[in-house]
Input
Amino acid sequence: MSIHEIPLTAESQTFGIPLAGTTYRLTVVWRDPAPGWVLDIADASGAPLVQGIPLVTGADLLEQYRHVGFGCALYVQTDSNPDAVPTISNLGDASHLYLVTP
Output
């Protein structure tokens, strides 16, 4: 098993990243009125695969999307309280997104 942090900042962002050997485009945005960070995943050409995944703690964010075949897991954890969800200002600083591959 391998664990790597996906570097993020507390701002909306889109970037390409290899997940388990395949390059995807990840978009992380802060959404209102129900505040929270959400993740969209697209293929390398930008075609949406999964949209609106809330960045919550305590579970593999990709578990319900196993049928897509990502071949990895994504977890969110906050430094001071592992169960606290990322805030608008602490993503990438005190709250982290981790890629776990078998």
User: Anything to note?
Assistant: The longest strand covers residues 22-31. DSSP finds no helices and seven strands in the chain.
